């Protein structure tokens, strides 16, 4: 059975690229384009891995990560932060569930390697 990935990003082109890349690698991919509906989408999809942008309308990625880390049902969900904001990396380093941090634009091979490791429950960087 394919691992489920939920991608939360407000850029339609980025959502399309990430979805295509992950589907080609055999993942079941769900998408969400804002922070307001992200929590409901996480509860509905119950992903194996979450790909999270930092700058989102509604609730930003950091606030969403904070909420995820405080909820027993989601605190161990592996998260890969995918953002153009390289300086935000230090904000996310305190969360053990953040297993990867990728800066846009990204190399497809590196991105896939990090997501596959996260899906297998291994912590990357």
Task: Quickly name the level 1 CATH class.
Answer: Alpha Beta
Question: Radius of gyration from the CA trace?
Answer: 13 Å
How does the helix and strand content classify structurally?
Answer: alpha/beta
Helices and strands, in order, run as EHEHEHEHEH
Spatial strand arrangement across the major sheet: 2-1-3-4-5
The fraction of residues assigned to DSSP E strands is 15-25%
What's the overall average pLDDT, rounded?
93
> Kindly, what is the distance between the CA atoms of the first and last residues, rounded to a whole number of angstroms?
26 Å
| Total count of helical runs of at least 4 residues | 5
Q: Level of helix content? A: 25-40%
What's the CATH topology name? Rossmann fold
Overall 3D shape? globular
Major β-sheet, in short?
5 strands, parallel
CATH architecture descriptor name: 3-Layer(aba) Sandwich
The low-confidence runs, each spanning 5 or more residues with pLDDT under 50, are none
Domain tally: 1
Report a brief summary of the structure.
This protein has helices at 12-24, 38-45, 61-70, 89-92, 108-119, and strands at 4-8, 28-32, 49-52, 79-83, 98-103. With 125 residues, it is α/β, with parallel strands linked by helices.
């Amino acid at each position: 059975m394919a691992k489920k990935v939920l991608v939360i990003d407000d850029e339609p082109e980025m959502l399309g690229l990430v979805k295509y890349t992950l589907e080609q690698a055999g993942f079941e991919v769900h998408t969400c384009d804002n922070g307001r509906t992200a929590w409901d989408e996480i509860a509905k999809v119950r992903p194996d891995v979450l790909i999270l942008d930092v700058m989102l309308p509604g609730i930003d990625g950091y606030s969403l990560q904070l909420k995820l880390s405080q909820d027993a049902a989601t605190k161990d969900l592996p998260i890969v932060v995918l953002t153009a904001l390289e300086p935000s990396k230090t904000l996310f380093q305190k969360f053990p569930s953040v297993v990867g941090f990728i800066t846009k634009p990204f190399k497809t091979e590196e991105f896939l390697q990090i997501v596959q490791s996260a899906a297998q429950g291994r912590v990357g960087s």
